Records
---
Amino acid sequence: MPADIRGLIFDLDGVITDTAEYHFRAWKRLADEEGIPFTRADNEALRGLSRRESLNQMMKGAPLDETTAQAWMVRKNDYYLEWLQDITPDAILPGVPSLLAQARAMNLRLGLGSASKNAKLVLDKLGMHDTFDVVGDGYSVVNPKPEPDLFIWVAGGLGVYPTQAVVFEDAEAGIQAARHGGFWSVGLGDAVGSLSHLRLPSLANAVLKDILASL
Ligand code: BG6
Ligand code: MG
């Protein structure tokens, strides 16, 4: 177990709440309207990637001029925002409130590191706008995951070194970002690859002391 853990940094989409389905429906609607083949499996590869990189991957190398790319990203986001209206605190994933309470009881600092430009809106919808000491989102840094910049930005705000923080992620790009930054990492679900220090199916029934002990 790392001796001196002082902070936890959480990804949002797929860790705190499951917005992946809404992202999928929004990309799928755009893709269908534009006649671009796009499947659920294609969407899995977009987990954790920025809106821009997601569009690049959806295009699979087909050329797209910048004006159209910008317009499509706005359209996709408008579709996403329509569905986001339905989100309530019931959408917080099982185990998350308990884990956050355990962390607070251990006096750990709490950060959010999300690639999403909608992260603060999602936190508001979940009733979590004041849950985290530092919120890093799609506006915080230039280089998105898998670069480590966002987590380093959040750690700086928390006043902890990467070696003193654990990142919780559901995406391979996020685990890569954590590892590149020198953080401890917990991978959740099937899409995280093999790089994380610990893998769990989800945070349901998670016991923080056990997680820290098994890193
Ligand atoms: C990540 C999601 O958290 O945010 C990605 O996993 C999404 O699917 C990315 O593309 C960017 O989100 P947004 O809300 O800025 O389009
Ligand atoms: Mg995620």
Note: The chain has a mean pLDDT of 95.
---
Amino acid sequence: MNDTSSALLGPAEIRDLAGRLGVRPTKTLGQNFLHDGGTVRKIVRTAGLRPGERVVEVGPGLGSLTLGLVEAGASVVAIEIDPVLAGQIADTVRTRVPGADFEVVLSDALDVTTLPGEPPTALVANLPYNVAVPVLLTMLQRFASLERVLVMVQAEVADRIAAVPGSKIYGIPSVKAAWYASARRAGTIGRNVFWPAPNVDSALVYLERRDPPSTTASREQVFAVVDAAFAQRRKTLRAALSGVFGSGAAAEDALRAARVDPGARGETLVVEQFARIAEQLPDLPDTAGTGVTPASGIAEQEGDE
Ligand code: SAM
């Protein structure tokens, strides 16, 4: 659908803008641009933004979703890794939505630790597919102000983020996302609303921040246990966690102390159970005086699976 009645970008405008900038979408940066106003409106509507709400968008690209967000009255800060796109986006937004409250940060979203302006309360984005899970988890970790998230990701990834224990696709992204938020699928998106059309289906995931499990273990310790539990999915927890606890016997003791069956597999556990297991990790000396114990430093590859 070509959206000539509003500020939104239709197929002709997307091609024209990309042509003028010499942009040739790359797979490496997950560049599939939305060119359907109906889809943009659906995303903005589903995000349920409050008037004037501060929103962070990762990867504004040519501005398709950004325009929908500012048109709806959001105050948007966008993070874009591609210098050509980052250099153009403010101009596109101000030309098409005069008076829009918008700023852009040229950076890899994984490197951003602070954002200008008011702290964002919502993340709304059509995420680059190859880094969608790490970007999502990193944003939730670094920006405690985020209350809600609506992201478009590969349909299969959306399923994994929103999966519940006991299902085959329940894994590292499901448990780590559950540390921060409750997640649910919020709709499917067809392939032909993008240029270029990706060869996988897409879906929306809606996450609502909640308190992490109440535990004496650190997030890093819990995530280290999660990474180990899913490293070899077919192994029992006793076997999978033997490395983390030093031996199979020690893992078994830790699991029993955490009231978890040592013969169970990681895919049956909720995040609170992983937290109870992490509480059994030995207190290792803080040799570097950093406040980070060796055990808590094990896992920083969030989202890897
Ligand atoms: N939001 C636009 C849309 O819906 O049409 C573009 C979405 S496109 C799927 C992903 C965007 O993320 C691209 O603009 C790409 O350059 C950008 N990107 C890729 N990796 C990134 C990263 N690590 N940090 C920030 N932006 C990134």
Note: The chain has twelve helices and nine strands.
